[in-house]
């Protein structure tokens, strides 16, 4: 099946048993994915954009004031060449669906080297308090659900 999501990926998923909600379907969305490892990969996908420049990156942290991602050195050079000032970041489909926030405007607040990668800390630009509150509400809910899952898993 072809995976359809907000980040433009040409990805086809093969269900080897229990990984998809509807394995017979020709197209699936991230919400149809039941496989925990693939869900974690899809939840962390972001697309950064400015003008004609676009790049998919792997999110490390999404918070009320900042968004953090890492890339390798080669990708970092492309970011440095193309991103100055503010730019847009498309959030993963689950965050967009549940928080109502699909795109945020950001600027690079800090960058540093870590284990052969470059970590970028972005701060939001012109985000209304309502949008920030919606996003924080969703992130808090997700954090509580995550803690409950781990607590339950430890008991078993």
How does this model look, in words?
- By secondary structure, the chain is α+β, with helices and mostly antiparallel strands.
- The protein has 4 helices and 8 strands; from the N terminus they run ββαβββαβαββα.
- The protein has helices at 36-43, 73-82, 93-99, 129-155, and strands at residues 2-3, 27-28, 45-50, 53-62, 66-72, 86-90, 103-114, 117-124.
- Strands 3-4-5-8-7-6 form a 6-stranded antiparallel barrel.
Quick structural gist:
With 156 residues, the chain is α+β, with helices and mostly antiparallel strands.
| Rounded mean pLDDT score | 79
Alpha-carbon distance between the two ends: 33 Å
> How many extended strands?
8
Relative helix content? 25-40%
Name the beta content range.
25-35%
Order of strands side by side in the largest beta sheet?
3-4-5-8-7-6
Q: Could you describe the largest sheet, including whether it forms a barrel?
A: 6 strands, antiparallel, barrel
